[in-house]
Amino acid sequence: MTNISNFGIYIIGDEILSGKRQDRHLSKAIEILSARGLQLSWAQYLGDDPAQITNALKASFAKSDIVFSFGGIGATPDDYTRQCAADALNVPIERHAGAVAEIVAQFGEGAYPKRVFMADFPQGAALIPNPVNRVAGFSAGLPNQKHNHYFLPGFPQMAHPMMEWVLDTHYAHLFHQTHYLEQSIIVVEGIESQLIDLMNETLQKYPEIKIFSLPKLKPNRQIELGAKGTPEQVKLAMQDLKVGVSKIGFVWQDFSLTSKADDL
User: What is the pLDDT of residues 220-259, one digit of tens each?
Assistant: First the structure.
């Protein structure tokens, strides 16, 4: 299955990894993208470890993926993300005049001496407006290339509308361009090991789609077996899966029919 663009997210912070706070970004990012006909390709949790963050960013800056990073852009000593982004790009940190103006407009004299640190961005960064308290996020990319990374606060009430703004402002041309369908069946009393050959055969026949199996043990044993990808291929694959499941001797029931294609 070929995507027009891959979208990824980083969720940064020891508080997530330790369980002090529950992550609210992953599910919301999926929802925000899905509403625009887009899909999340990958997600990664990172602790407050500068080397870990920098290495991850170096790897993703080198690709063409569109990446949203949540957390670590405040002014406290454990907020490493802005410096790590600069290090990953091999550029210095600079104070962004537009970001300073936003902070001063919100906090007046209270912008100094500490809040203004949140206007320090990697050289060449652009602002992402914050509709809650005007402390901007920033976008960045490799020098002389289009920005493809967007750095947002860890606070969901700020970060999520900022993500929507980025998508609506910069990527509206990608919305609802990929025709996508997901279908599945419930295999009653299914045994996953007995479905593996069928899944592999189907995947070989339709290599552009993804086949998935989601077992459930309680209250009754069952398997959700399905396919996702281009609508035409998914429909053909599901026909083969249904026939194959019946031949193995299992009973199946339709589970879902979720279309994410504009004209279906």
Answer: 899 999 999 989 999 999 999 999 999 999 999 998 644 4
Quote the CA–CA distance of 81 and 53 in Å, as a whole number.
7
CATH label, 181-259, candidates 3.30.450.40, 3.40.50.920, 3.30.70.600, 2.40.128.630: 3.30.70.600
- Alpha-helix runs per DSSP H in 21-180: 25-34, 50-61, 81-89, 97-107, 156-170
Can you give the pTM of this predicted structure? 0.84
Taking the C-alpha atoms of residue 137 and residue 85, their distance in angstroms, rounded to an integer, is: 13
Q: List, in order, residues 6 or more apart from 158 with CB less than 8 Å away.
A: 130, 131, 132, 133, 152
Does domain 7-174 fall under CATH 3.40.980.10? My reply is yes
* Separation between Cα atoms, residue 83 and residue 104, nearest integer Å: 22
Label the pairing between strands 40-46 and 7-12: parallel
